[in-house]
TrEMBL record:
Keywords: Plasmid. This is Uncharacterized protein.
């Protein structure tokens, strides 16, 4: 394993929130500013992406977790990893 402290952190999913809890998607990589794509759950266009790159509304993902708690444990939609150390909010 090589640990490179580059500008691009790996886009790793964190914890799967319990049903009814909100997803924490703060990373800008969740937002595709180039194009909207149909949400895998409701079919309406969304710029949001899951960690796996699936186009999905965050609200839809939260709803899906609540509706499919067993499958949700497999980690299809997860919150961001919590990094308390350094948070940069400068990127618009
Ligand atoms: Zn949706």
């Amino acid at each position: 394993m090589t640990r490179t402290r580059g500008k691009k952190a790996p886009f790793e999913p964190g914890l799967v929130p319990p049903p009814g809890a909100l997803l924490e998607w703060r990373d800008s990589q969740h937002f595709d500013r180039w194009q909207d794509r149909p949400c895998v759950l409701c079919d309406k266009p969304t710029p949001m992406r899951s960690h796996a790159g699936e186009p999905v509304h965050k609200a839809c993902a939260v709803y899906w977790i609540a509706a499919n708690p067993v499958e949700a444990r497999l980690g299809r939609f997860a919150s961001d990893t919590q990094s308390k150390s350094s948070q940069r909010a400068t990127h618009a």
